[in-house]
Design a protein that fits this description.
With about 240 residues, this protein is an alpha+beta fold. Helices cover about 35% and strands about 30% of the residues.
């Protein structure tokens, strides 16, 4: 198992409100990974994302151990997300400058045979395997809900005026609901976690091509960011790539 990550401010923002953490422990065989995309503009979205990512990691560090069952992983990831939400929410109440801030979160526990991923908001997780690319997560967004109900086509969703309105975020309320997904991993597979600064300008098939055929996987995150910036870089961009 190998992993790489990168983040970039893009060309339209004055600060990078994305934040990521990535760690592989070869002794235990676990990888921990998380991408957070802060919201709140001047109200410290960058602080929200950093608190959430670090709190999520700190809690998992205390909980994970070799031989965990899938049920235990799901329980621990949900607990880590709950703690991260509370810390961001409490911080938002500590100053008028922070009131209303929040963040997305996608992250979890990965081994060479399984990924267990939590999701709040519209940052995404993808599995790339011999059959193609599969989005693991489901966006918590107005447009995703419209797609699910059949009110929009996939093509209409790409440029819908509400495409960036999320229906769930970490830290905006005292409690939060997260979705948790598990996928089996095989040798030769890849896992991608990213913020919407990537997926708003690069489609799934382009991600698939760049991971499998774009060149050295060690440079893949930078290549994807370069493509997003070549299309205007309208948002912060963060990418984590794990190979198996």
């Amino acid at each position: 198992m190998n992993a790489w990550a990168n983040t970039d401010i893009g060309f339209s923002r004055t600060q990078n409100q994305d934040y990521y953490n990535l760690e592989i422990n070869h002794d235990t065989g676990f990888a921990l990974c998380v991408v957070c995309d802060g919201m709140g503009g001047a109200k410290a979205g960058n602080i929200a994302s950093e608190i959430a990512a670090n709190s999520f990691f700190e809690e998992l560090h205390m909980l994970i151990k070799p031989g965990m069952t899938l049920k235990a992983k799901r329980t621990y990831i949900r607990q880590a997300t709950t703690i991260a939400n509370k810390k961001v929410y409490d911080k938002s109440l500590s100053s008028p400058d922070y009131y209303g801030m929040g963040t997305t979160l996608v992250g979890g526990i990965v081994t060479p045979s399984q990924a267990v991923i939590a999701n709040v908001g519209d940052s995404r997780g993808y599995l790339i395997d011999r059959t193609g690319i599969q989005r693991i997560t489901r966006d918590h967004s107005v447009v995703e809900d419209m797609l699910y109900r059949g009110d929009l086509s996939a093509e209409e969703a790409k440029n819908h005026p509400s495409k960036n309105l999320i229906t769930r975020a970490l830290g905006t309320d005292e409690t939060v609901l997260c979705d948790i997904f598990s996928v089996e991993i095989r040798q030769g597979d890849y896992l991608v976690l990213c913020s919407d600064g990537l997926t708003n300008v690069i489609d799934d098939q382009e991600i698939l091509y760049e991971v499998l055929h774009g060149g050295n996987p060690a440079n893949c995150c930078q290549r994807l960011i370069r493509i997003a910036n070549s299309r205007g870089g309208p948002d912060n961009i963060t990418v984590i790539l794990l190979s198996f």
